[in-house]
Design a protein that fits this description.
single chain, mainly alpha, 19 helices, 2% strand, disordered N terminus
């Protein structure tokens, strides 16, 4: 009996150590699929010229990418649970890279939609949802930090590629750039995926401070609750707010006169995009870690309000190149944390057993946000000939969601968790 106990303790210690290696491999996979979303803005100009299309038409590609990434995420989560994390993540990374290779040769809007939008969305969605679901299982005691760390990989991965892709677009053209980087990113993700595996039972790796949890709810049960739909609405508004910026940045930077200016000896737009990736990545583990200690809703309220203020300052100082670059980073610092706060809050509320599929349903809110953040925002600018209405909508969503987090979600979820708590 003593020997068996010691063996179990040794296994638990080994699992606790190996989960950090899992975290590293998961972050690399996320970095490999981040560029299709976060460097998209660099391709919009060349694509409108090549295809003879309007910005609003080209932006439909971005919406398709996010919609396919998110609306099919419950199915993707189910497939990961059914066929295994390693195989599905490998397929997702390969398909994501292939989407760029094929999109490089797109000669019509339809082919662009099918390659960059459809294939890219399905590939990145499999990886994103699968990785988030895996990490909240590996880290029941540091759920916010772990979800934030891998989400940071997604947010910061494009930091490494922004300048190389920008330079390659200038020197080699769009077709060569998308083909080369599609192959590189696909191979990197494929290799990293081979190190992933499912964790043992949660109680074997949990720290002693984890003293309670909630009943594990199925997706069907979760979808019948008010607390889920409140989180869904909040996620949708915050996603819309952020995507209005990430998908349109090159366009409004041009209108603000920032595409041909230098800041600190570098071109303003790629410099801003690089700083954005750093801040968008750092905010995810940072606020995830804070939420593990300060509370999910308290952290949401602060971060969302902070982004609203930063975006207001960004708009009012849009004619200053230095402030344009610096405040773009501050805005992203207040947005990217939604990808650590919402999955950790959802798993806290509905349990770990169905975490991947459950988050797949919540992540669909990102798809709705992409519709408003992409072509609808472009159309709003087209009809008003101003970016002010676009920013006004984004700022309003930030402030509303901050108040919902503190005054509504906090009380609703507290009652829910108290009702459904069980001993760990």
């Amino acid at each position: 009996m003593i020997s068996k106990t010691l063996d179990l303790q040794a296994d638990s210690t080994a699992s606790a150590h190996s989960r950090w290696y899992q975290l590293v491999a998961a972050m690399v996979c996320m970095m490999a699929i981040s560029s299709p979303q976060y460097v998209w803005t660099l391709f919009t100009g060349p694509l409108t010229v090549k295809l003879g299309a309007s910005l609003a038409q080209v932006q439909i590609t971005f919406s398709l990418l996010i919609v396919l990434q998110t609306f099919f995420s419950p199915v993707q989560g189910f497939l990961v649970d059914r066929f295994g994390i390693k195989k599905l993540i490998a397929v997702g990374c390969a398909v994501s890279g292939l989407s760029w290779v094929l999109a490089a040769h797109a000669n019509s809007l339809t082919s662009l939609y099918l390659t960059y939008g459809l294939l890219g969305g399905l590939g990145t969605g499999i990886v994103y949802v699968g990785i988030i679901g895996l990490m909240v299982r590996w880290f029941p005691d540091r759920r916010g930090l772990a979800a934030g760390a891998v989400a940071a990989g997604y947010g910061m991965g494009a930091m490494i590629t922004t300048f190389p892709i920008s330079n390659s677009l200038r020197d080699a053209g769009m077709e060569s750039t998308m083909t080369t980087f599609g192959i590189i990113l696909g191979v990197v993700g494929l290799v990293a995926s081979q190190f992933l595996r499912q964790p043992p039972a949660a109680q074997e790796i949990a720290e002693p401070k984890v003293v309670s949890t909630v009943v594990d709810f199925t997706p069907k049960q979760m979808l019948k609750t008010k607390v889920f739909w409140l989180m869904f609405a909040m996620f949708t508004m915050m996603s819309t707010s952020g995507l209005m910026v990430t998908s349109q940045m090159a366009s409004f930077a041009k209108d603000f006169g920032m595409t041909n200016v230098m800041v600190f000896g570098m071109a303003a737009l790629p410099l801003a995009l690089t700083i954005d990736r750093i801040c968008n990545g750092l905010t995810r583990p940072l606020f995830g870690w804070i939420s593990d200690r300060w509370g999910r809703e308290n952290t949401m309220a602060f971060a969302f309000f902070f982004e609203g203020v930063a975006m207001t300052l960004w708009l009012t100082t849009s004619d200053n190149p230095v402030l344009f670059v610096l405040l773009s980073g501050v805005v992203f610092l207040g947005w990217g944390e939604i990808f650590s706060l919402f999955p950790s809050t959802l798993t806290d509320t509905f349990g770990t057993r169905n975490a991947t599929t459950n988050y797949g349903f919540l992540y669909m809110a990102q798809g709705i946000g992409s519709i408003f953040g992409g072509p609808v925002a472009a159309l709003l600018h087209q009809y008003t000939d101003s970016w002010t209405p676009v920013f006004a909508v984004a700022i309003s969503f930030d402030i509303i969601t901050a108040f919902l987090a503190f005054f509504v979600l906090k009380r609703m979820r507290s009652n829910w968790v108290a009702k459904n708590a069980v001993a760990a």
